[in-house]
Amino acid sequence: MKIALITIGDEILTGFTTNSNAAWIGQEILKIGANINVQVTVSDNEKDIKRYLDYFSSENYSHIIVTGGLGPTHDDVTQSAFFDFFSSKAIFDASYWEQLKSRFAKRNILIPEKNRNQAVKPHNGDIIDNQLGSARGLYFSRPKNKYFALPGVPAEMKAMMINTVIPLIVQDYSKNSYIKTINTIGLGESAIAEKLEDVIKKYSPKIKIAFLPQLGRVDIRLFSENKLFLAQITDEIEKILNRNIYGYDDDTIETAVAKLLIEKKYTIATAESCTGGLLAHRLTNVAGSSKYMLGGVVCYSNSVKIEQVGAKQKTIMDYGAVSEQTARELALGIQNKFNSNVGIGITGIAGPDGGTKEKPVGLAYIGLIINDEELVKKFQFVTNRKANKLLSSQTALNLLRLKLMQ
């Protein structure tokens, strides 16, 4: 089995839109034990679309998935490209046209005539229903190839992939494949590879291992056709990496922290300067966060640090807003303000400006108070503002996770 993915859109090629559809489709295909073997992005050009359909057909790709270009505007040319490639006669679907008109009418909108092309179906192919939008997908089959055309709107594309495309691929995929993702934090890719070198050699080639580094963490993805081997290597990796593992598969570090807070029946409050509320946002991303999250303060200015959180003016004057002493007082002040078990204070220089030789961009202090126990740590991150905010919040969550595990 070979799978090709074609994403269509000038907005992707010019960088105005991030190709998140390709990433999502790749991950979903992995879950069934298959792989996207090749992915290309082409412009909103009928000739280019047909050229790649022809190429992947000649190269015996069993499943060819196309996303984008199924709307009603002039640059939506995927439908016409498919119809031409498969020598399809366009059949007007009057029943679906009435459905579209009814949907638009419920929103007090008169349906434009441009939308009539969305009510067309091929005489020699099938339609993939769209429960979330107006552009239906297309499905064509040949003895050695299956072709899918899906809208580029993420929610619509995902629904069609889950309900139609993936089940059809599964029917054609005979291998039993098992996948496990181990989520780690606190070690870089090379350090993990070094620690696992003997385990990798032991199980190769029975297990395929991929390291997936991301900002602030590394995922380890394991593939095997043998469920027992997968369980064995997972157990050995757990023993080696131990507390550097915070979860598996779709787990997030905030989910791991939430579980620990709920188990201990602890509450938490946050005081954030350089992260601008990102830590509180991540803590409340978890369902049931009202069990532990009391509140937080975004204390960007010194006056808010002093008046709303409880940091001392003298501390800030003597040591600076970005200092170990201020981080400690932010954590303690927010704990007292909300009467919580846990208080976290974060202060730093996110950048790209504002750094000095003594306090460069990327410097951050994280203060953590759990009941009467205090911990303040200094970190030097990077020079990118968004990366620093993410790394600061990620590191704060991990510090809390490790302390709660003690």
Indicate the topology.
Layout lengths: L2 E6 L1 H4 L6 H12 L6 E5 L3 H13 L4 E5 L10 H8 L4 E3 L1 H13 L13 E3 L3 E3 L8 E5 L4 E5 L3 H19 L5 E7 L4 H7 L1 H7 L4 E7 L2 E8 L2 H15 L3 E4 L4 H12 L3 E5 L5 H6 L9 E6 L3 H8 L3 H7 L4 H15 L3 E7 L14 E8 L2 E8 L4 H21 L1
Parallel strand pairs: 1-2, 1-3, 3-8, 13-14, 13-15
Antiparallel strand pairs: 4-5, 6-7, 7-8, 9-11, 9-12, 10-11, 15-16, 16-17
Helix pairs in contact: 2-6, 3-4, 10-15
Describe the structure.
By secondary structure, this protein is an alpha/beta fold. The chain has 3 domains: 3-172, MoaB/Mog-like domain (Molybdenum Cofactor Biosythetic Enzyme, Chain A); 178-248, Alpha-Beta Plaits, CATH 3.30.70; 253-405, CinA-like (Maf protein), CATH 3.90.950.20. Helices cover 41% and strands 23% of the residues. The strands form 4 sheets. A 6-stranded mixed beta sheet has the order 2-1-3-8-7-6, sandwiched between helices. The radius of gyration is 27 Å and the shape is globular. The relative contact order is 0.08.
Residue fraction in strands: 15-25%
Structural class: alpha/beta
CATH superfamily of the largest domain: MoaB/Mog-like domain
- CATH fold-level name of the largest domain: Molybdenum Cofactor Biosythetic Enzyme, Chain A
Mean pLDDT: 95
Main sheet: strands, sense, barrel: 6 strands, mixed
Provide the CATH top-level class of the largest domain: Alpha Beta
Our count of domains comes out at 3
Instruction: Please identify the oligomeric state.
Output: single chain
